[in-house]
Structures are given as structure tokens and as C-alpha cells.
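Input record, target 12 of the design panel.
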């Protein structure tokens, strides 16, 4: 039963980080520094000067079919806050570590080692159903 609770906690925290509207301003600040290949920014994020490349925090960007600005040099660091499979693993590791540190559960060592992997898999699968 503990694995289900850990998996659902990891999923909810990952969703809070990567998709909830309450954390969108923080997520946008992170993505403005490390945009992903699917990041799209509105005009208020972009600095445009005549005769120079359009930039987003000193990184060049390009126009995408009138929808917004996209980065020409995406960063993999930004995926840590937008990809449920990426963030879910690290969140699952932290949740498992926190439970291990404060609980008196007597589980085998390999169960503690497997919990983050299983929890992150469930997180990724659940996020795909949204």
C-alpha cells in the first residue's frame, strides 16, 4: 500500500510543478532562462530591437506561425519542470527519501531502491492520461 501512496504523492507534486496554473509564473521564469524545444512565449517575454536578433534573456528566438516566440537553442534543463517523466523521477526520489527518513517502515533495501522507479513510472503514465 505504501507504494501507491508514494506514487500518487509523486504524481501530484510533479503535476503541481509542471502543469498547475498556480505555479505557472514560477515555471515561466524558469523556462525563460532555460526554454524547452516546445516553449512558446508571448510578446511580453521577448525583447525586440531593430537590426538585431530578437532575444529572450540574451538567447536568440524565432517566430512561430504567429502563435508566439520559440527558442532557437532549447535547453534540456527546462524539461525538468515540464516533462512529467523527467521531473517525476526526481520528485519520486525525494518523496521516497522523505518517507524513508521519517518513517519506521522496515522494508528490504531493494524495495526502497525500487520505489522511486515504480513511482515515477506511475507518474509518467498518469500524466499521459490528462
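The sequence produced for target 12 reads:
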Amino acid at each position: 500500500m505504501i507504494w501507491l501512496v508514494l506514487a500518487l504523492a509523486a504524481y501530484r507534486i510533479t503535476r503541481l510543478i509542471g502543469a498547475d496554473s498556480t505555479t505557472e509564473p514560477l515555471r515561466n521564469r524558469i523556462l525563460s532562462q532555460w526554454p524547452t524545444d516546445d516553449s512558446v512565449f508571448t510578446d511580453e517575454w521577448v525583447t525586440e530591437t531593430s537590426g538585431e536578433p530578437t532575444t529572450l534573456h540574451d538567447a536568440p528566438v524565432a517566430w512561430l506561425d504567429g502563435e508566439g516566440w520559440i527558442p532557437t537553442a532549447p535547453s534540456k534543463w527546462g524539461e525538468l519542470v515540464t516533462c512529467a517523466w523527467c521531473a517525476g523521477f526526481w520528485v519520486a526520489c525525494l518523496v521516497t527519501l522523505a518517507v524513508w527518513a521519517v518513517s519506521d517502515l522496515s522494508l528490504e533495501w531493494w524495495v526502497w531502491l525500487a520505489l522511486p522507479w515504480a513511482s515515477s513510472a506511475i507518474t509518467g503514465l498518469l500524466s499521459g492520461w490528462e
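The two ends are 24 Å apart (CA to CA).
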